[in-house]
Amino acid sequence: MSGDIYIAAAGALASEKRMQLIANNLANVNTVGFKMDRGRYQMINPTDLPGQTAANPADLAATRAHLFWNNFSSYTDYSDGALKQTDNDFDLAIVGNGFFCVQGPDGEHYTRKGNFTLDADGVLVTHNGWPVLGNGGEITIDSQENPHRDARFVVDSQGNVAVDGQIIDQLRIVDFTELKSLTKAGDTLFKATGVPANEVAEARISQGFIETSNVDSVKMMTEMIEVLRGYESYQKIIQNADETYSQAIEKIGAV
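Predicted structure:
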């Protein structure tokens, strides 16, 4: 296969992967605490491209074809989403850096999705039932005056949790020196790989608010159109190149 077809095919595949990212971002435009993914390319260095006079084209395709590929990778954009007021006492939002800590079946996870609730035992949990962690572990609403669902639940700006006026714990808010060490685990949860979590000493919490997705739907739609047009251009390049080589083979064969 010729170099120009390799390059066009690489561009088309990269565009397809970018389209998948955009589609996933748009699907989560209304997901609380969602962090969008972005794509990036490592462009081809022309000096690294194989020459067109290779002695054995088959060997070229097998051993040096990777030099034609546009390396595409993705990364998570951790920029803040807008805050939305809900007036629900169990909705919490982090202002600035940091993540809530939740205890999952396979260990500790981290999230910005703060629309919490209480389980039957009065434990503060995520909507999938995972306990939210404070500095003392699971946060249990144990009221002496009222059933736990009727207790006065207050979280101040420093993350101190009070029930009926008594502080019972403080939300555990952590951050990471290298956010690239985090990997998505589904449902806006992250797992840390090989890097310890650092306690955020002066976390700012807003009670009665949630952090919305940081996806800009208008911008995503614009990027989708751009990627689609680019993909169509690569298809035309491949088609034109294929037709050109087919005609050349026919003419050479007719000589």
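Summary: The CA atoms of residues 152 and 164 lie 5 Å apart.
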